[in-house]
Design goal:
The structure is a homodimer.
Chain A: H1 9-27, E1 31-32, H2 33-40, H3 44-56, E2 60-66, E3 74-79, E4 85-91, E5 95-102, E6 107-114, H4 120-138, E7 145-152, E8 156-157, E9 162-163, H5 177-185, E10 189-193, H6 194-205, E11 214-219, E12 223-229, E13 232-233, H7 264-267, H8 270-279, H9 292-307, H10 311-335, E14 339-343, H11 347-357, H12 359-364, E15 375-378, H13 385-399
Helix pairs in contact in A: 1-3, 2-3, 4-5, 6-13, 8-9, 9-10, 9-11, 10-11
Chain lengths: ~400, ~400
């Protein structure tokens, strides 16, 4: 085991500063110094010293006074939303989504660009240009942008900042996305798995109900998982936590390239569900091919038909909810989390059927059904969860207290 | 998200004290104050103050002086092994194992008691008596025993300190083991899942090579998993991390009570492997029934025959290694850990075949094979890993620095 390092006063000060910033951010309406004492457990003197520093740096501002009986009025301290920004980029086989967030996590800019049939250098150029446009349109000072977060399909080589072999992006073998985008933009770039970024976004923008631990299941072109506990997302030792493509969910399912059958990758993806719908005769026309846009279009048609009450379509989605319940039970039984959150670009149209169909089989399969019932919710952040999450990864590094920041460096 | 609490000087002092104690413990030979400055990053003044307190409490002692050129000789500080003890108890369907560990994690006492056909209150009485005998035999002061750790099969109701429905222990429905054993012994009792305890034992007694994260797969009457990262074992939100019984590993496997087929519980347990051996004609005699001792005996015979090179026996173990490789790949792909450690009471006789057969299919199925090769090792602690681990859970609470200890209380 690596030796633990001690801590000292400057480290403690930085940590407490993050604790105070987080308390103010999460309060929404702002907090007085006395409320900060209650919320953080820190002494009044520490609160006074640290809030003075944060006021000097422009990260917080005094926002009104409240008079509560006799004595000095309380000054409310609020986060200055426009004091810092971050850019989030989500690289997906079909589209690249860009968002610009302010310090409160609010999107002050958004752009979507199609990615079909483009090589890596063209895509990086498009990214750099779009980021510039986003910042220009928002009319903000470039120096206030803390960095660019990129969410990409895993697995990643996080040490090198490369995307290894993203599905359906030909020519993307081991592209050193972090360094080339940093060079093209001049910003510091953070690369994270799309699923991990999405969970950071959920944790960051979620309200107080996100207390405790949760499993995030990301429904994109592929499926991925992430887990949050103790207020942070588990990235894994190589930032590749949550690769779930070859978990078996249907022993009667189709064979998989891995040698098994009925894996998530051949049963639960939008493409697999579209193929199940085709086999069940849901569509009137012939399959159009497996391109990302074709799959998207047919997948949405399937969901619309299910919503309209067409039984073959509904049957396909119900069976697919059953498969997802098996997957989720495997993950929650292993990870022992309190809640399940479902999100990602394909979540929206599935949400009605899945929220109705998943809880019962999940509870039946839960190893902890004797001690609790797992709740299943849709993500707070919508379709842009990958991009918003990537931007939150950057804000998170600025704002969230992390106990590991307390350790003295080697 | 729960609001983070700040930290302050007394908290920081306690944390740094644990950091110093851990550094001294892990050094084995002891460390001088100057070496402690290097190891922990703390100032010489802090090291002097904290080591004075530890000397006063008798937890460390001065153990010789080293003269290194001119200047003052360096005084080596060592852990006082006999300054504290802890008891570990492993409740298993076949046997209860008891160990008494000193502060260095060394066993200074051990006892094994058969558990067949006993009701909960008789077993608790046996436990309490055996713990007294263990302490008496070792001739140590009862007041130096920091507590009793109990490892039991999951799932547990950790909040209530109860074992819910341990396999093959009739009458053990929701037994409040923690409180009844505390009452019977007068000691503070900690209840932990056997698999989690085993991983704590591995982390605690393992050498420096256990740096980074690992997956621990526990091969007992049932199979369980645990994971360690950042120097600690992940317990899960209800202390039920690592329930893996219904992960599918063989789509052609036998049906399972859960409705699927080929789950770990019906494919990978010693009982399932013995049944596969029976079906393959490995044994000359008829099955004897499914009692824990009968399964143990036939399982050992299977392993002996495989070691002797008998092909039917070897074939059964090779196929079973393949199934375990599927399970391990599911877990390592989800958890993104650096290493795999296999242990538990059934590990020893399987180790030769499994260490030879598992790495190749595991690598082939690894989502991160492009960035690393997972290593597979046997546990450092042997058959007693559950009991040793349970005792380490108690020592761990005394000795291991935990960043969460820094937070101020609500």
């Amino acid at each position: 085991m690596g030796m633990r390092r001690g801590t000292n006063l400057p480290r403690m000060g930085d940590f407490n500063q993050s604790v105070i910033l987080e308390a103010i951010r999460r309060s929404g309406e702002g907090l007085s110094r006395i409320e900060l004492v209650e919320a953080t457990g820190l002494s009044a003197q520490t609160i006074t010293n640290i809030t003075r520093r944060l006021l000097d740096e422009g990260l917080i501002a005094e926002a009104g006074r409240t008079i509560n009986g006799p004595g000095k009025p309380r000054v409310t301290l609020r986060l200055v939303a426009e004091s810092r920004f971050s850019v989030g980029v989500h690289l997906d086989p079909a589209v690249i989504t860009f968002v610009l967030l302010n310090m409160t996590g609010e999107a002050v800019g958004r752009r979507v660009v199609r990615t079909q049939d483009r090589d890596p250098s063209a895509i990086v150029e498009t990214m750099a240009k779009t980021i510039e446009i986003l910042i220009d349109e928002a009319g903000i000072d470039r120096n206030l942008v803390a960095g660019v977060g990129v969410a990409a399909p895993g697995p990643l080589d996080a040490a090198k900042g490369t995307v290894i072999d993203p599905p359906k992006l030909d020519g993307w073998h081991r592209v050193p996305l972090r360094s080339v985008l940093a060079e093209a933009t001049g910003f510091e770039v953070t690369l994270e798995k799309d699923t991990t970024a999405a969970a950071v976004g959920e944790l960051w923008t979620g309200d107080a109900t996100s207390e405790g631990s949760f499993l995030f299941v990301y429904l994109g072109t592929g499926l991925g998982a992430a887990a949050a506990r103790d207020g942070g997302v588990v990235a894994g030792s190589t930032h590749n936590f949550g690769e779930i493509g070859h978990i078996m969910v249907d022993p009667e399912g189709p064979p998989c390239a891995c040698g098994s059958r009925g894996c998530v990758e051949v049963v639960c993806t939008p493409q697999a569900i579209v193929e199940q719908a085709e086999a069940a005769g849901v569509f009137d026309d012939e399959p159009q091919g497996g391109g990302a846009n074709e799959v998207d279009e047919r997948f949405l048609r399937l969901c619309e038909r299910a919503s309209a009450g067409e039984l073959p379509a509904l049957g396909v989605l119900r069976r697919s909810a059953g498969h997802l319940a098996v997957l989720i039970s495997v993950l929650t039984n292993v990870l022992d989390v309190d809640r399940v959150v479902l999100g990602g670009p394909f979540w929206g149209p599935l949400s009605d059927v899945y929220l109705r169909e998943i809880p019962e089989p999940l509870h039946r399969r839960s190893a902890t059904r004797a001690v609790r019932t797992l709740t299943v919710d849709g993500a707070v952040v919508g379709d842009d969860v990958g991009a918003v999450g990537a931007a939150c990864v950057v804000l998170d590094a600025v704002l969230t207290p992390r106990a590991s920041d307390l350790y003295l460096e080697d």
